[in-house]
Each structure stands twice: as structure tokens, then as C-alpha cells.
Specification:
Oligomer: single chain
Membrane topology: Multi-pass membrane protein
Shape: globular
Radius of gyration: 20 Å
Number of domains: 1
Order of helices and strands: HHHHHHHHHHHHHHHHHHHHHH
Strand content: under 5%
GO cellular component, one term: plasma membrane
Helix content: over 70%
Number of helices: 22
Number of strands: 0
Subcellular location: Cell membrane
Largest sheet: none
Pfam families: CitMHS
Distance between the termini: 40 Å
Family: Belongs to the CitM (TC 2.A.11) transporter family.
């Protein structure tokens, strides 16, 4: 076993047993430590590490985190929570919470939706006396499933869109991912509706009044329009990019620059630009940079190529794509897995790219490390002073959802491929 593969395994184990580590140790600390060790040991050079990072993706995430932070400052999370609390039936509240989180993920990425959704989860948990850990895991499931139906719903979709260069990326995701996404979202609701009723109130997990007050105490910015303009600008440019590719045969716009241009109103005209910049989820950005360094070292070492063996010549096969992207995501997280898979993939049809996108996305429902949005939920909950779910709680509650979503997504994409949908 190579040093790079050994360090990656230790990172996974470190995150798995984090609940027994000192409280000050965060998930991003573990990933960053792994990247530093690989650099110190010479497994990857600083220059190679720099080029291993997908900076376009980092810029895009910085932009959506800025937009999410600014929207939070406008009181969006509190407004959504207030609308949900007006409904007396707890089942309907949970349903609309899941739907709203999924829609937010489809528009602003799952990572931004996680930032906005955590304070809502805390408020709802207190109001309906739900176990907070269950509501937070439901948020993770909702933003993961919601993100699979949009070309900008998550970072791995963005990587796939850039590599595949779909003629109409919005239409492609509607055809290939919308139906399984809706079916999976229904399953998420029924699964967590049962869990909130089964778990009931756990006094040890009850959100303290101080935490709830912190989640509710949003200092509303005097100017709300810059955040709204940035969000609309982001959606507008992405839609225009898709239409430009389809009808005018224009080249794809760099997603990083799309994001940076979209968040300009916040930093040029917003009242709270410094606070927004400070509140950007820097921990998650560091996590992503470190993760790219770790996977870059893995790719450079040839460990993955060796493990794949003869399968490396069959990466365009739908079943191989599903199996490799699912299981590799459990160890290395779905974003770097997709990045590496696209490097190893020699061509591919629409079905192959969409299988890679959807299966790697729903793979994020099994372990905390499998998707960065799960990590964000944990870090945001801890930021508010709440105690989130453990590694094994997450895995146990998510297991049925994961299996169901994988089967539905695989079956839908396989069926479209057999029918010759291109």
C-alpha cells in the first residue's frame, strides 16, 4: 500500500472516530493535517499540490458561500422558519423543510443550502421538540438529493458539466436526473418523518435556549437587494450559459468567474461586505483545498490506477461507473472522486457522465465524509453551539435512503441509455 493511500485511509478513520477525539478537533483539521503530512513526506510537491486544486471550483464555492452568508444576514433563514412554523401539522412542516432545502440546493449548491438550512433545523427542532440530530441528518439528505437535479447543484455536477460539455446542461439534467431526484426526495420525507416520530424528544439532544437564540438572532442588513441581485445574477448567468451553448454554440463559461461576477453586488454595494467576507465558510474551503491535495497525491502515486486494474479500460461502462463512483466516494469524498474519474475516463456518452454525476451524489448519503455538504452541516451546527450527529448515527439513519436512491438512479439512467436517449 502506498503512503498516499495509507494517509487517505487514516484520514477516513480519523473522521470516523472524531466523536472520541478532543472537541476542538474539527473535520477540516483532519483533512488539512493529512495534506500537510503528504507535502512534508514529499508524496506531492507544492507545485503539483497547487495544480491539483480545482481553483475554478474553489472560486465558485467562495461565491456561493458569500451569497448564502449575505442571504442569511437578510433574515432568509428566519423568514423560512417563520413560514414553516405557521403550519400546525408537524408532518407538513418537515415536508416543506425538506422541499425548501432541496430547491435551495438545486439553485445555490448543496453546500450553500447547508449553510442556510442549519439555523432553520435548530429552530424547528426546538419548536416541535424533535431530536436535533435527526433534523440535521434530514437536512443533509434533502440537500444531497436536491442537488442531483441541477448542473450547479453540487461541485461534482459542475466538474461533470465542464468535462462533458453538454449542449444544453439544464435540459440534460432535467431528463436524466429530475425523475429519480423527485422519487428519492419523497423517500427522504417518509424516512425522516418516521425517524422524528420514533426518536421523539431526547433530553440530552435538546437544543439549549442559548443555541436557539443564537440561531434566531439575525441582524438584518439595511440593504437586502445586493444579496437578492447576486442570487438572481448567478441563476441568470447559468441559464444564459446553457442557452448560449444550445442556440448560439458558444463555449462554456468558467464557473469560477461566473460565481465571482455574481457576488460582486454583495461586495460592491452591500452594507455588510466585511462581515459577509468574514462569515464565508473558510473551514470548508480549506477542507476542499486539502482534499484536492490528498487526491492529487493519490493520483500521482498511481494507487488508484493500480486498484482499478483492468477496470480502468471499462470506466465508460455504466455499471463500472456506478460501482467505482459509489464506493470510492465513501473513502475519498465524491468531489475529488469525480475529479479523478474524469481524468482517467477516456471519452464517454451522456449516460456515463450522468451516471457518474448522480451516483457520486447519492453516495454522499452514506458517510459524513462522502459529501462536503455533510461536513458543512456538522461544522455549522458546532458553530451555533449545538451538538450534531455522530458518524455512526448518520450512517445508520441514511443507509436505507442510500440504497434506495442508488437503485432508483441507476435504474433510470440505465433505462434511458437502453432506449437510446442522448
Amino acid at each position: 500500500m502506498s503512503v498516499s493511500l495509507g494517509i487517505s485511509t487514516l484520514i477516513f478513520l480519523g473522521i470516523a472516530v472524531r466523536q472520541w477525539l478532543p472537541p476542538m478537533v474539527r473535520i477540516w483539521h483532519i483533512m488539512l493535517a493529512g495534506a500537510v503530512v503528504l507535502l512534508v513526506l514529499g508524496e506531492i510537491t507544492p507545485l503539483a499540490a497547487f495544480y491539483a486544486v480545482d481553483w475554478q471550483l474553489i472560486f465558485y464555492l467562495f461565491a456561493v458561500f458569500s451569497i448564502a452568508s449575505s442571504l442569511y444576514d437578510t433574515g432568509l433563514s428566519q423568514d423560512i422558519a417563520d413560514m414553516l412554523l405557521k403550519r400546525s401539522q408537524s408532518g407538513m412542516v418537515l415536508l416543506w423543510f425538506i422541499v425548501a432545502s432541496a430547491i435551495c440546493a438545486a439553485v445555490l449548491t448543496n453546500d450553500a443550502a447547508a449553510v442556510i438550512g442549519v439555523p432553520i433545523a435548530i429552530i424547528l427542532s426546538r419548536a416541535f421538540r424533535w431530536k436535533l440530530a435527526v433534523v440535521l441528518v434530514a437536512l443533509c439528505a434533502a440537500v444531497t438529493v436536491g442537488s442531483m437535479v441541477s448542473p450547479v447543484g453540487n461541485p461534482q455536477n459542475i466538474l461533470v458539466v465542464n468535462a462533458a460539455n453538454f449542449q444544453n446542461m439544464l435540459a440534460t439534467f432535467i431528463v436524466w436526473a429530475l425523475v429519480p431526484g423527485v422519487i428519492c426526495l419523497v423517500a427522504v420525507f417518509f424516512r425522516f418523518h418516521r425517524l422524528v416520530k420514533k426518536n421523539g424528544l431526547d433530553e440530552s439532544a435538546l437544543v439549549s435556549q442559548e443555541v436557539e437564540t443564537q440561531a434566531e438572532a439575525v441582524e438584518v442588513s439595511r440593504r437586502q437587494w445586493p444579496a437578492m441581485v447576486s442570487a438572481l445574477l448567478l441563476v441568470g448567468i447559468i441559464t444564459g450559459d446553457s442557452l448560449g451553448r444550445t442556440y448560439f454554440h458558444l463555449g462554456p463559461l468558467p464557473f469560477g468567474w461566473v460565481g465571482l461576477v455574481s457576488c460582486l453586488p454583495i461586495y460592491l454595494a452591500g452594507d455588510e461586505r466585511l462581515r459577509v467576507f468574514k462569515e464565508v465558510d473558510w473551514a470548508t474551503l480549506i477542507f476542499f483545498v486539502a482534499m484536492f491535495v490528498v487526491t492529487g497525491s493519490l493520483y500521482q502515486s498511481g494507487s488508484l490506477q493500480y486498484l482499478l486494474g483492468s477496470l480502468q479500460n471499462e470506466l465508460a461502462d455504466l455499471t463500472v461507473t456506478a460501482l467505482v463512483s459509489f464506493w470510492a466516494s465513501q473513502l475519498f469524498s465524491n468531489v475529488p472522486v469525480v475529479e479523478l474519474y474524469l481524468k482517467l475516463l477516456d471519452g464517454g456518452e451522456t449516460g456515463t457522465f450522468m451516471m457518474l454525476s448522480t451516483i457520486s451524489t447519492v453516495a454522499g448519503n452514506l458517510f459524513i465524509i462522502s459529501a462536503a455538504s455533510n461536513v458543512i452541516v456538522v461544522q455549522q451546527a458546532e458553530k451555533f453551539g449545538a451538538t450534531p450527529f455522530t458518524f455512526w448515527q448518520f450512517c445508520w439513519w441514511m443507509l436505507p435512503i442510500t440504497v434506495f436512491c442508488v437503485v432508483v438512479s441507476y435504474g433510470w439512467i440505465w433505462g434511458l441509455t437502453v432506449l437510446g436517449v442522448g
